[in-house]
Structure formats: structure tokens, C-alpha cells
Write a structure and sequence with these properties.
Belongs to the class-III pyridoxal-phosphate-dependent aminotransferase family. One of its GO terms (molecular function) is pyridoxal phosphate binding. It is a single chain. By secondary structure, the protein is of the alpha/beta class. The chain has two domains: 159 residues, Aspartate Aminotransferase, domain 1 (Alpha-Beta Complex), CATH 3.90.1150.10; 263 residues, Type I PLP-dependent aspartate aminotransferase-like (Major domain) (Aspartate Aminotransferase, domain 2), CATH 3.40.640. The strands form three sheets. It has a seven-stranded mixed sheet, with helices on both faces. The chain is globular and about 60 Å long. It starts with 16 loop residues before the first helix and ends in a 5-residue tail after the last helix.
Length: 454
């Protein structure tokens, strides 16, 4: 009989003494704006485990906000980086080109949805990819308006922030925002009015789209619709296959480009290489980042060749875009996903989490809904299941207690009441079970001791 080994190992309180000293330095020298989930500092990370400067080992269910599908420090990626470091660091693609950039572009052109001719170029962050996809769409169509969706998140730069829906903390006090950006509803079936079916929800939004073209902006002035195939920061909201297809059809009928924002959903997270594959929709443009390069700063825009060629030489790009280190890391990540079949692993992880929490729902009344696509899993916390009133306070207490017990977790959602699970896809079954057991203990603890209300 094989004994399970525990991965979590806490030798101090969180934060420990070394982390506490670093926190003082952080407070003195770093502005308060950049948020921090766990109040400690990493020393090393491997797979789904993180050890801090005080020697405490955590299980990671956050994965750097979905940037570590391949895990912390995957060996093949580390080796590829060591090899690249001995050749050159950054000649800048705009000054002297390098092969890894071309090789990765070729790879993404092959594996992204659709068999049409595509082209790809690289940047450093998801927000930059979104900004440039919008630039390309406007250049190609000669149109001005961009439609995004309520609860959507596309980044923190000016245009990306304008397309983002959640006011606090992302937009509050930073306006005015980019003009000619508009937001449409996005299905949230769990919160639909009583009696409305999924089909009713979809139909209502489709009608609003058509009315929008009559009341706000004519279709011939709309350059693009940008959509997350699963809303990330918005709460891991999964639309129906039919809804995505109908939005794409509206775009096709009106000469509007369809941009899929796969920054968080890409690279096996949802059980397919890209989430758009679930809806069998081929986007005109796609943005990617986060898990593309095992956490290194890299992003990409891939699209139809004729669209991508709309900007002239020098009209898109950036000094650090497509760094050699990011490109070689991304090539190894894609190999790893394909070789280790991490898409199937994502499905198994998601199934295990959903099964676990569906059973837990019988005893824990504040679990409103459990939803997932692959390993992109959300637990919605409510005050009661009848009214479905979001419970942000309780959600924060669950996270804090989980952190204290060695499990790294994050929240999401417009109401701040979603526990999102983005564990690395290389997490072992034992590590997954151990992390879920911690969450169960925390929830029963809060059920028994009572929720502290401010």
C-alpha cells in the first residue's frame, strides 16, 4: 500500500519572520496599487508547489493568475532558456531578426483554430496583444467602434481598460476612457431571472445586439467584437456554444471582425488547446499570453493573413515584443502540452474538482454553483441558494483561511464572490486532493464558527 505524502509544509505563521521584513520593505518602496494575494515571498517553485522565504511550502491553486499551465519551472523550459541565454538575450526583432520568433509564429499559425492562411506577431503582455488586435481591426476595416462584453476583462492599459467592465479596482478614477467602445451583455445563466432558460438568455442578448445597431452605432461602423470564450476575471462564466456561434454569425453578416481573447483560456486550460474550439468558431483575430511561455512575458496576436497585413511596416510592434527567451520557452510549453496531453489532464482535473464540490454542496449551503470548462473552475459563494445573493465577505474569509493553511487561491467575479481554481495542469492527483481537502476543512470551519460580518 502506497502512503500519500503531504505537500503542504508550514513551519511558521504566514507571513513568517523573513516575509514580514520583506513586507516592510515592500510597503516603504513599492506603491500600494499592485495587489498581492498571499502575504509572503517566493523562494522557489516546482510544478504545483511553492516554497516561501521562511521555508513554508504551499499548493498553488492560482497558477500566477492562469500563467502556469505548465507549472513552476518546467525542466524542459528551464533547459531551453539556459541554452538560449548562452547565445543572445535580446537583439530586438526590429533590429536583427532571430529564428525562434519565426518558428513560434509558424507553430501558432498551425495550431490555432482554422486552416486558412494566418500570420502572427508578438508582444510582451496580454493587454498589449488586445491593444494591437484593436489597432489591426480598425486599420483593416476602416471602422471605429469596438464592442466588448459586460464583466469582461481585457487588461489595464488605456484601450484594454476601456474594454474592461469591472469598475473597481480596474477603472475607478482613471477616466476618461477610449471613445467608441461599447459593452453588450454576456450570458450568466446562474443569475438569469427565474423561469428563463439558457436559450431565452441567449435570445434576449442577440436581440439587444440587433437593437444596438439601430439605437447606438450602425453595424457598418463597428470594426470588431472582442470576446473571452470563458470570462476570466468576470467569474469563469461559460457561454453556450450556440451563443458564441450566433455572435460570430452577426459579425460575418455585417463585416465585423471577431476577436477571441484567449489570454487566460489558451494553452490547454479549458480541455482543448484553445477555448474557441469548444464552440467550433474560427475567430478572425486571437490574442494570447499568460500560459504561452510558462510565465515569461510574451503575448501574441494571430489572425487571418490579409487582416494581419493591414498595418504597414512600423505601424505595429514594440522593443521587447517576442523576446527570444519568451519564444523558446513558448515552443517548449507547446511541446509539453502535446507530449503530456495536458488538454486531457485539464478535463480530468476539472471533473475531479466539480465532483468534489457537488458532493460538498449537500452540506455547505453557501456553495451556490460549481462550474467549469476543463480545468477553469469556479465556486460561486452566496448567502443563500434561493436568493443567490453574492457573499464577498465570506469569500474573502475562505481565501484568507486557505492561505493560512498553505493553499494559494484567488477570487474573481463582478461581485468578488467567486473562488477560482487555476492550478497548474501538471499538479499530481495527491496534490489536487490535498488542496481540495484544505478547502473542505476551511468551509466546514467557517460553517461551524460562523462568518464574521463587518
Amino acid at each position: 500500500m502506497t502512503m500519500k505524502t503531504e505537500s503542504i509544509n508550514l513551519v511558521t505563521e504566514i507571513p513568517g519572520p523573513k516575509a514580514a521584513e520583506l513586507l516592510k520593505r515592500r510597503e516603504q518602496h513599492v506603491p500600494r496599487g499592485p495587489f498581492n494575494t498571499v502575504h509572503t515571498f517566493i523562494e522557489k517553485g516546482t510544478g504545483a508547489l511553492v516554497t516561501d522565504v521562511d521555508g513554508n511550502t504551499f499548493i498553488d491553486f492560482a497558477g500566477a493568475i492562469g500563467s502556469l499551465n505548465a507549472g513552476h519551472c518546467p525542466p524542459a523550459v528551464v533547459e531551453s532558456l539556459k541554452t538560449q541565454l548562452e547565445k543572445y538575450l535580446h537583439p530586438c526583432f526590429h533590429v536583427m531578426m532571430y529564428e525562434p520568433y519565426i518558428e513560434l509564429a509558424e507553430k501558432l499559425n498551425r495550431i490555432t483554430p482554422g486552416t486558412h492562411n494566418k500570420k502572427t506577431f508578438f508582444l510582451s503582455s496580454g493587454a498589449e496583444a488586445v491593444e494591437n488586435a484593436i489597432k489591426i481591426a480598425r486599420k483593416y476595416t476602416g471602422r471605429r467602434a469596438i464592442i466588448s462584453f459586460e464583466r469582461g476583462f481585457h487588461g489595464r492599459t488605456y484601450m484594454a481598460m476601456s474594454l474592461t467592465s469591472k469598475v473597481k479596482p480596474y477603472k475607478n478614477g482613471f477616466g476618461p476612457f477610449a471613445p467608441d467602445t461599447y459593452k453588450m451583455p454576456y450570458p450568466y445563466y446562474y443569475r438569469a431571472p427565474e423561469g428563463m432558460t439558457r436559450e431565452d438568455v441567449d435570445e434576449q442578448i442577440i436581440k439587444q445586439f440587433h437593437n444596438f445597431f439601430l439605437s447606438e452605432v450602425p453595424a457598418e461602423d463597428v470594426a470588431a467584437v472582442i470576446m473571452e470564450p470563458v470570462q476570466g476575471e468576470g467569474g469563469f462564466i461559460v457561454p453556450s456554444k450556440s451563443f458564441v456561434q450566433r455572435i460570430k454569425k452577426i459579425c460575418e453578416e455585417n463585416g465585423i471582425l471577431f476577436i477571441a481573447d484567449e489570454v487566460q483560456t489558451g494553452f490547454a486550460r479549458t480541455g482543448k488547446m484553445f477555448a474557441m474550439e469548444h464552440s467550433e468558431v474560427i475567430p478572425d483575430l486571437m490574442t494570447m499570453s499568460k500560459s504561452i511561455a510558462a510565465g515569461l512575458p510574451l503575448s501574441a496576436v494571430t489572425g487571418r493573413a490579409e487582416i494581419m497585413d493591414a498595418p504597414s511596416s512600423g505601424e505595429i510592434g514594440g522593443t521587447y515584443g517576442g523576446s527570444p527567451l519568451g519564444c523558446v520557452a513558448a515552443l517548449e510549453v507547446i511541446k509539453m502540452i502535446e507530449k503530456e496531453n495536458l488538454t486531457e489532464r485539464a478535463n480530468k482535473i476539472g471533473e475531479s474538482i466539480v465532483h468534489f464540490f457537488k458532493q460538498l454542496q449537500e452540506d455547505i449551503a453557501f456553495i451556490g454553483e460549481v462550474r467549469t470548462l476543463g480545468a477553469m473552475t469556479a465556486i460561486e459563494i452566496v448567502k443563500n441558494r434561493t436568493e443567490k445573493e453574492p457573499d464577498k465577505e465570506l469569500t474573502m474569509q475562505i481565501l484568507q483561511e486557505a492561505h493560512r493553511r498553505g493553499l494559494i487561491l484567488m477570487s474573481a467575479g463582478l461581485y468578488g464572490n467567486i473562488i477560482r481554481i487555476l492550478s497548474p495542469l501538471v499538479i499530481t492527483d495527491d496534490q489536487l486532493d490535498e488542496g481540495l481537502a484544505v478547502l473542505k476543512e476551511v468551509m466546514f470551519h467557517l460553517k461551524q464558527t460562523g462568518i464574521k460580518r463587518s
